[in-house]
Amino acid sequence: MKRKPPRRAAEDAPYEIGYCKPPERTRFKPGQSGNPRGRPKAKKSLGAALNDALKAKVKLRGNGKERVVSSLQAFVIRVVMDAIQGKASAQKMLVALMERFLPTAAEVAPAENGKDAVAELFEKLDLMRKRMQEKPPGEK
What we know:
By secondary structure, the chain is mostly helical.
């Protein structure tokens, strides 16, 4: 099969029309995009959506005041408050979060009185964990 020769230029065309030389009437006008809708926006991944949700600001009321904090801070505050009120699931979650994200007693320099607040808290949490694992008397 032979290749067709390029079309002859029209009488009014200033140059020969052919490969990489489209007619002027079909060219994009100045300022006109070849892709008017643009590239479609990428879908958010689950991690990106979760990150945005945790950064979102929420209003909390307490002590007669209203303050704005991130969703993540509100979650941590709720876990701590539930743990203080004695909810076992919140206490377990708080202990796990503290073990993972707070420095251990060996990493923290002791305070002036010789005992660090974080170390003291870990001792109390260890005692609380032991009590939670023990079964009450009379239960088998």
